[in-house]
Structures are given as C-alpha cells and as structure tokens.
Design a protein that fits this description.
The chain has 212 residues and is mainly alpha-helical. The protein has helices at residues 8-33, 38-41, 45-75, 95-103, 114-122, 129-136, 138-152, 156-170, 179-184, 196-209, and strands at residues 79-80, 83-84, 86-87, 125-126, 186-187, 194-195. The strands form 3 sheets. The chain has a two-stranded antiparallel ribbon with strand order 1-2. The chain has a two-stranded antiparallel ribbon with strand order 3-4. The chain has a two-stranded antiparallel ribbon with strand order 5-6.
Amino acid sequence: MAKSMRSFDGDLVKEGKALIGLAKAGEMVRAIAGPGTPAFNQWPVHRLEALYELAYLRMFVAWETFLEETFYRYMCGQVSRFGQAVPVAQHYRSVAAAEAAFLGNRYYRAWYDVTTVITVCQKHIVNGTHEIAFRTNSTWLDPLSRIRHRIAHGQKDAKRKFDSATLALSGRVYLASRPGRFLRDWDTTTVPQVRWLEKLIGQIGTLAGQII
C-alpha cells in the first residue's frame, strides 16, 4: 500500500503564521514603548522593514523546501488528498533516489523560476500538482520570486524587476526599491486591510494547499 504524504502544507502555513508574528512583535514593541523611549529608539522604521524582509525571505526558503520535499515524495509514489502521482518512468524507492534523479548532474534546481519548474516537473510526473499549480498561478509566483530576489540582491536588474512586481501587486513603486517598505505597507484592497507581508505569506499557504 502506498504511503500517505504528511501535511507539509499545514507545516508551511504554521511557519508562515510564526513569521507574521515575528514582524508583529517588532511593531508591538515599538508601539507599546512609545516615542522617545530606549526601546522605541532601538526600533526605527528601517529596522522594522529589515524584520519584514527577514520574515519574507525565511518564508520563501520554507516554500522552496516544501516544493522539494513534496515533489520527491510524489516521485516515490506517496499519496496526498489529490491521489497518487503518475510517473513518467517509475516511482522511486527512496526520497534520496528521487532527489538524485530530479537533480541529475546539478547541485540544486531553481524553484523560484516558473518556466524551469514546469519543464523539470514534466520530465518526472504526468500533469502533477506542482506543474498545475505553477501553470495556473504564474501571475502570483513571478512577483513572489522577484521580491525574494530584491531582498537577496542589490543589482539594478533585481531592483527593476522588484519595481515591476510591486507595480503589478499594489499599483505603485517604492522609494529606493526597498522590499521592506513594500512588505510593511498595507494592501488596501482587503477588508480588513492587511500588510503585504501577511497577504503574500497567506498566498503561499494557499498555493501549497493546491499541491498536496
């Protein structure tokens, strides 16, 4: 009997809530301390923005780990609520064997690249949930990766692509292409309004639920 895949999506959602809580903790300290206090002075806006960037980057790392762990297990024949994946060639006997087949002669695969993910997934699983989720959510996945790149990189290209992402999501660009400023800003299209960090982490959780 095929093994059931554990709820990696639930683990990811739990991690997301903890990271949202990290950003909220910084906001709370600053708000409770009040202007002029030592604690308030230790939490200027630029440090809060850095906290938002850290939270988002850690969530993106958790998202990439989720994608790897679940795909390898589909390659091994594990079953989720969507059923058992149909392999292109075979189901593998272990996660390590599946990982080796997936990576080939590479050390890693770029899970943030939508086109690459779709192409590689097609080589191993027929119409798998990873492929379907990436195909149907490309309008979200591309901006998510561009925000991640801007946190990690300072090149002009990373800034330009980040600006295009925030323009698509919020209708504006942010001073100095600062990702923390965007992530701390409010999404005014939601009721009640939430900060973009919470909106995007919630979206990642939704995407995970479409995969397992």
